[in-house]
Design a protein that fits this description.
The chain is an alpha/beta fold. It contains seven helices and 14 strands.
Length: 313
């Protein structure tokens, strides 16, 4: 049975959580109205990937960095709060699965640290999984803390068994293997990497894991950044493409079946058949008959990590 999917690479309203969610609701309505049952948004979509970190001077621009980060923190998502309820309600109303990147704020301990997180919302509106990026890349470490292994989980949905890694986590072979070993049929890679190398890696993952691969960055120009963004005109030219998007869908054979959607602020649609993933592993099953457990083993710590343990009388 085929499932129609929608891969959304419309720019968020940068640093504005509520406005971005309102825009997402419109995209969900549109994609669900077109028959899509699995909807995928990019990395850190609420309230937008911190593209400015690649332009500010390392160790410099401290006042500007502090101002932007304060706005980002104020617009991050507390998963113990109600910020995502509109998206959960929309998923339940349409009976669709929604996967999106967010900036998640740690409200349990520090109240300040942010994580690069991907959440999977099921067609009943429940959050099925939260995965925090294990290792932020280069200047991203000035924005996000490191996640733990508790989100390295594959979840069952009407669109198949879904697993997610964020951006360059797809270059972490052991993280990939941890998902392959849970019968993953659809691999979702919300990303900021729209390069040819990223695309080649995603095709490799599809073949290696015998799974569908769905990936998208955010198609965004300088003109998409709100006018109140600090020093916007100094950091971005209005007509430049900050990211070209390149939403793509790749079959378990490693062949591209839809996209890449390049320099197009829209929705990429495709149909996938989960049975193809199962059939692909007949000849190559890296966690099954193509494994050598007598030679290699992998241990994954999925215990949630916390910075403190309190013992009270």
């Amino acid at each position: 049975m085929t499932i129609k999917i929608g891969v959304i690479q419309i720019p968020p309203v940068l640093l504005q959580r509520e406005a971005t969610i309102e825009q997402m609701l419109a995209s969900i309505d549109e994609a669900a109205g077109a028959g899509a049952e699995l909807l995928v948004f990019p990395e850190a979509y609420i309230p937008g990937y911190p593209t400015w970190i690649w332009r500010l001077r390392p160790g410099g621009d401290m006042a500007l960095s502090s101002e932007i980060h304060a706005r980002l923190r104020a617009n991050a998502v507390d998963l113990h709060g109600d910020a995502l309820i509109p998206l959960q309600d929309a998923a339940a109303r349409h009976g669709v699965t929604v996967v999106t990147g967010i900036h998640e704020i740690d409200s349990c301990y520090s109240g300040t640290t942010l994580f690069n997180t991907v959440v999977t919302i099921g067609p009943d509106g429940r959050i099925l999984n939260r995965h925090r990026k294990l290792m932020p890349t280069n200047p991203e470490r000035m924005v996000w803390g490191m996640g733990d292994g508790s989100g390295l989980v594959v979840v069952a949905t009407p669109a198949g068994r879904l697993g997610s890694l964020i951006c360059w986590e797809c270059y972490m072979p052991l993280a990939r293997y941890a998902l392959y070993a849970q019968g993953m049929e659809v691999f979702i890679n919300p990303t900021w990497d729209s390069s040819d190398t990223g695309l080649a890696t995603q095709r490799h993952i599809a073949k290696e894991g015998g799974c569908w691969v769905i990936s998208t960055a955010t198609a965004m120009q300088g003109s998409d950044i709100p006018g109140d963004f600090p020093e916007r005109d100094e950091l971005y030219a209005a007509d430049e493409w900050i990211n070209v998007g390149n939403a793509v869908v790749i079959s378990p054979s490693g062949e591209i079946t839809a996209g890449p959607l390049n320099r197009d602020k829209g929705i990429l649609y495709a149909e996938i058949d989960v049975e193809q993933a199962r059939r692909a592993r007949r000849s190559l099953d890296v966690c099954g008959h193509y494994a050598r457990p007598d030679l290699f083993s992998l241990s994954v710590n999925r215990i949630p990590q916390s910075p403190v343990t309190f013992s009270d009388a």
